[in-house]
User: What shape does this take?
Amino acid sequence: MATGSMTAWQLLALEPPGWGGALLTGAATTVAISACAFSIGLIIGLFGAIGKLSDNRPVGLILKAYTSVIRAVPELILIVGLYYAGTDGLNRLLMAFGLPPVEVNGFVAAVAVLGFVQGAYMTEVLRGAILAIPTGQMEAARAFGMSPLLRFRRVTLPALLPNALPGMANLWMSVTKDSALVAVVGYQELALTTRLAGANTKEYFLFFLAAAVLYLVITLLSNLVFHGIERRVRRGQRPAH
Assistant: This one.
């Protein structure tokens, strides 16, 4: 494709031969991967935090090993290792039952791997938030005869959210950037689309600058969302300085 005579606006046009539409699609895919992975990480982290704070020693040791290993190994190695090892393990299991192998969908694989990684960090964020809850609140809930589930819904959850939100916001920003790593397993999101656009047009600076702007927009909008949530959950509290 000849691009020497094309202006920057033409290269960034939404319609081909411009790459603007592909970049926006890549940005939407990045947000979708990040949102799904963040949600999975939040679920894992919630159960992980409760498990680490429980009196069940075997569960606590397993969760400690999980969070230690995941946080020690670089995300890129984890993504590549879990993707290929997980796919191979699944196909070996299917073959053992006489079933044909399957090709794991790239989106599902990206979400599962990033969610598994997020879960380790989320476990520690939520564990710290739970530990920051004044013990008197929990003792008062027990004195009123609340069941564990009711205590969690009425006392623990509302009290941990203000403490956990800053860490959760940081993890969301982290997963939006870590989503770029799924390009190594062949799934096309914003980072891979940017590299393809640059390789096809040789206008690397233009497209990487455009991608940086899109990541910045995602970050700014995310900050607005988290600030809104934080204002809501901190209603009635004195503002932090």
The mean pLDDT is 85. Residues 20-53 form the longest helix (34 residues). The two ends are 55 Å apart (CA to CA).
